[in-house]
Each structure stands twice: as C-alpha cells, then as structure tokens.
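Question: what's this shape?

___
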Amino acid sequence: MIDLSTWNLTVPASHDSTLISTQQLANGYRSPYFRRNDDGSLTFWAPVTGGTTSGSAYPRSELRETGRDGTPVFWKYDRANDRLAAVLTVERLPSNEKLIVGQIHSKDEPGSMRDPLLKIRYRKVDGIGRVEAVVRRRPGENACDSHLLLDGVRPGDQFGYRIDLDSRGKLQVAASSEHGQSTTFSQQVDPRWKKQNLYFKAGVYVLDNQGPSTEGGRATFHWLDSAHR
C-alpha cells in the first residue's frame, strides 16, 4: 500500500477543482484520472485534452509532497539528504511519445520561474522506450542535460527509479528494469540551486496537448516513497 498521507494531487479536470487535498486522498478519492487498485498500486491518467494548471500548457495527474496537515512542503537541499523512489509501469503515451513520471521541482523565486531541477522522462526514440534523467543546469535557465538511464523499456514493462540529493549538492539517480538492466548517474548540482525551495512530484505529466480525448499518458505506480533525513 502506497502511503498518501504526505501528498496532494493535481488532476486534469476541465471544470471541477484540479487540486485534490491530502485529506481528500486520505478519504479515498478516486476519479477517471486517479485510481486505487486492489493490489495497492495507483494508476494515473492524463488525457491530452485535460485541463491545465497556471504556468503549464500541458495536463497532469501528479502527486506533490505535503506535510501530514496538507500544507505544501518545500525544502533546501543543504539541510538534509532528500530521496524519492518509485516502481512503476508506463502503459500509454501521447502521440509525441513523451511522459514525465517524477520531478524535483522548484518554487517561484525571483529570476527562477517554476523550473524543475530534475525530471524523470519516459519516451520512445525510433520505437524504443527509454528512461532518462533531465537535469536543468541552473535555476531560471532553459539549458538542460539529458542522461540515458534505461533503454528498451517497453510500455507495460516494470521499472524503478531512485533520486537522491544530499546536503552537499550531490545528485544521484539510479534506475533498474524488470529485464535486469540497471544504471546510476550522478553529478554535483550548481550551487545556485541551494537558494531554491524544492519539492518532489510523481505521477504523469503529459508533454502534449493535441489530439482526441482518448489520447494521453497512463502509468501505474506499484511503490512510491519519499524521505528527508
């Protein structure tokens, strides 16, 4: 069973509220965009025609970390060792075949915009599924570096990722697949990220907003855990 007591959820609803509170999740919230399965896993669905949040042109069905009282959590990396880990299956992709399934995001700060430090991206290249770590070089800049973690991961294959950002600014991303493939990538993040208020996100963020309502991104998370120690 995945513990949802420290998350809220954004869903791509067009007319109703797009923010599902921590309390609503605790009370068993479910919808076409978010389903609890009998085995304890969680399925996220975001159609390309779904509603969007301010500052984003794309739909998402995505968890965002909070305190147990539902208050949004922000953290600075130099104050703890921060970790997000997940095991999941990507089941459907939009027509551009790109999907974000995990992030270290950043709060609005002067000159920074709402830039993710890190995105875990699943995409197909020449028909082959890949899992990548996309790292933004500095806050407020568009320049990112993409690092291949796993190759040959087909839709329906189970894989896992683990993100660690320690108090010295060392970022490490490990990933493994059900076929026995595994890899670890690490780098020192730019010290300017030290000033940013960061937070984890996990689910499906669909990098596409064109097509019919039957098109979108779907993934099932079999395990999800975060920690700050």
About this structure: The radius of gyration is 16 Å. The longest helix spans residues 22-26.
